[in-house]
Design a protein that fits this description.
With about 120 residues, the chain is α/β, with parallel strands linked by helices. It is built from five helices and four strands; from the N terminus they run E-H-E-E-H-E-H-H-H. It has a four-stranded parallel sheet with strand order 2-1-3-4, with helices on both faces. Strand 1, helix 1 and strand 2 form a beta-alpha-beta unit. Helix 1 runs parallel beside helix 3.
């Protein structure tokens, strides 16, 4: 069983479907906007985290990134939408997409650029 955690977003049915198409059988979702979300611990069986960059705060993104790095969990940064996620998952499968490549994709997204310059 493959497990993914989606962080951010409200309408994630398309993203869930895309993950399912890539063999992910169990999907957890945190909105990232509830007070308790900042205290949650990434489930132990999580193999992939999908950060929906349009919908989460910089502080929460940083916390998720740190916790994932400690555990060696891959993170995919994507705007809200299955098409963008599909391209990133394909890149991971082809081993051609890195975090820096995702950053370049979002160079016109002001809030993400602010977050990236902070970190």
């Amino acid at each position: 069983m493959s497990t993914a955690l989606i962080v951010g977003g409200d309408q994630i049915d398309g993203i869930k479907q895309e993950l399912s198409n890539h063999g992910i059988t169990h999907i957890n979702h945190w909105s990232g906007r509830k007070v308790g979300d900042g205290k949650k611990i990434i489930p132990h069986d999580t193999e992939l985290i999908v950060l929906i960059t349009d919908w989460i705060s910089h502080t929460f993104t940083h916390k998720i990134k740190q916790n994932a790095a400690k555990r060696g969990v891959k993170i995919v940064y994507t705007p809200n939408g299955p098409a963008a996620l599909r391209a990133r998952l394909k890149g991971i499968a082809d081993r051609t997409v890195s975090e820096s490549a995702c950053r370049k994709t979002f160079k016109h997204n002001r809030s993400l650029n602010q977050w990236l310059s902070f970190h």
